[in-house]
Design goal:
The chain folds into two domains: 27-197, Na+/H+ antiporter like domain (Na+/H+ antiporter like fold); 201-235. It contains ten helices and two strands. It has helices at residues 3-12, 20-31, 35-51, 56-63, 80-105, 112-137, 154-164, 170-195, 201-220, 222-235, and strands at residues 66-71, 74-79. The longest helix has 26 residues, at 80-105.
Length: 245
């Protein structure tokens, strides 16, 4: 490399800042597949410790902190707990469902026998905990809470799978992921139907409308049009950098 090329390369390189010493190790940690699972387990342990400590009251009050937007008389605010349960968890299940759909269309769950095994295991994972709960709580005030023990914590399942990484076969990973999702869907339906006081028909209609719009886009080829546009954008040749070496 000539002296001029070396000078031009140094010009295009941004100067190192002090914050880089902190962000680079953090970025390397997040790039590790097991990083998310480790973070989940650490925060779970921290939450258990705080919930059973003298600071439990303060820890609980943090989750009730109101966070939102206010413009004049208009106010849209929710507690921090609600933002996580209704916002971030919705996005989480959306992303997990996309992976499950890919497995149903192109992956191992495309095989009816594999899909049937996951469904049967999920049903068993719902019935057995509910039966044990009813056996222990028969005649007790908490007997009606049998539906709350049916759900599998999908986040912990994914976290454990991420920590184990390549030490488990892909087929087992798909099976556990699909089992957890199907189990959660069944438990949510049981809780929604058996424990809710009323059904929000407006929200249900809005959800069905969204599904209909997506189906219409698929049938008319609009989704394919967006895919072609995004592919064309990625494959466009970028302009050459005048300082390229």
């Amino acid at each position: 490399m000539s002296k001029q090329q070396q000078t031009e390369t140094e010009i295009t390189r941004l100067p190192k800042e002090f914050v880089d010493r902190l962000t680079r190790p953090f970025a390397r940690f997040l790039s590790i597949q097991a990083g998310g699972g480790v973070i989940l387990l650490l925060f779970t342990v921290a939450a258990l410790v705080l919930s059973n400590s003298p600071w439990a009251h303060y820890f609980e009050s943090v989750w009730e902190t109101s966070v939102g937007l206010q413009l004049g008389s208009f106010e849209f605010a929710r507690s921090l707990r609600e933002w996580i349960n209704d916002g971030l968890m919705t996005l989480f299940f959306f992303l997990v469902a996309l992976e499950l759909k890919r497995e149903l269309v192109l992956g191992e769950l495309n095989n009816p026998r594999m899909a049937a095994l996951s469904i049967a295991a999920a049903i068993g994972g719902m019935i057995v905990p509910a039966a044990i709960y009813l056996a222990l709580q028969s005649g007790q005030p908490g007997e009606t809470g049998w539906g709350t023990v049916m759900a599998t914590d999908t986040a912990f399942v994914i976290g454990c799978l991420a920590i184990l990484g390549s030490r488990i076969p892909p087929s087992l990973r798909v099976f556990m992921l699909s089992l957890a999702i199907i189990d959660d869907i069944g438990a949510i339906l049981v809780v929604a139907i058996g424990y809710s006081s009323h059904i929000s028909w407006g929200a249900l209609a809005l959800g069905l409308l969204g599904i209909a719009v997506i189906r219409f886009m698929a049938l008319t080829g609009i989704a394919m049009l967006f895919r072609m546009c995004s592919t064309a954008t990625v494959t466009m040749k970028a302009p050459k950098n005048q300082f390229a070496t």
